[in-house]
Amino acid sequence: MRNIISLFFVFILGFIFLISTTYAKWAYAFVVYDGNTYIVSETHIETKEIDKKIGEVTKYSDNEGTYSGNFSNKFPKGTEYYAIKGVNINDAIAVKESEKSFIKANYDGKYAGSGEQGDSEYNWNNLLQYIVGVILLFGIIYLFFKKRNSR
Cβ distance 111 to 66 under 8 Å? Predict the structure, then answer.
């Protein structure tokens, strides 16, 4: 009986390990355009400084995670991105806040979920916890049947 309780405890711990998901808030507001991260600043851009439209938000979430596409943790889906006259897109872009209001977003590097920085590594890290859980589950089942057959 004591062994069954121990196995049950190990099973519960393994199950909790498998299903536990933590959601957190982002440290700062940002947008992702073309695989690059841009941190939203407090700098407003004049309408006359706005150049052509370059994209828009395709995914919004305020929970931490890794998302694909032109993602934002502040602006809703459909919010437009614009180039700024005289500014390289690799330095900054403008994000449309309202009909005549644009805010500057400064380049901060490649986005981790863009697929260019080891997206396959990210998938393996997620998959690893499930592999460990399945191995743990098979181990528990094996021990259970071994004990049961030894009686």
Answer: no
